[in-house]
Amino acid sequence: DNDKFALKPTTLQVMSGEFAVVVGRIGSGKSSLLSAICGEMPMTGGQGCVYGRIGYVSQKPWIMNTTLRENILCGLPFDEDFYWRVIEACALADDISLFPAKDLSEIGHKGINLSGGQKVRLALARAVYSRADIFILDDLLAAVDAYVERQLIDRVLIGNGMLAGKTRILVTHAEHVVPFADRIITLDDGHV
Hints:
Elements lengths: L18 E6 L5 H8 L16 E4 L10 H6 L6 H10 L3 H6 L17 H14 L4 E5 L7 H12 L9 E5 L11 E5 L5
């Protein structure tokens, strides 16, 4: 039954500046909800309104065949101070120090020279650098170890992190993140 994976009619509101955590079993519709918020899933009724620019980090990040820096800037002007703050917050500084040309190193087709965790952190850095208003983060903590996860939570997601005051919607299986949320969205078989 193809309807099993469709989102059911729902009302959902996330306020500006909130940290919302989306939880649910595998296949419950968490990623579909994020796709709907981003306007990537056709609506069969009702309406959806998103106010502001979206920074999106998917489970399988899109990586360009260019330098690490260009993957983060993604065509935006280079603001050196902000750029290096983003690198540090997204736990990329140590990785960059190991590359022969540092952040100007070519990272290969689809990021072939990067691990899964590095790709996710690169995509997160791109989103943070974009200075978007709303951040849609699809299970990015699953690709990193506990130490890096803690850094991302503290330096990016909560408190005075890089996204302080921004709207953040995070899909996660990391239950220890839930207490930091302003709003918890539970999905079950496409129902909120």
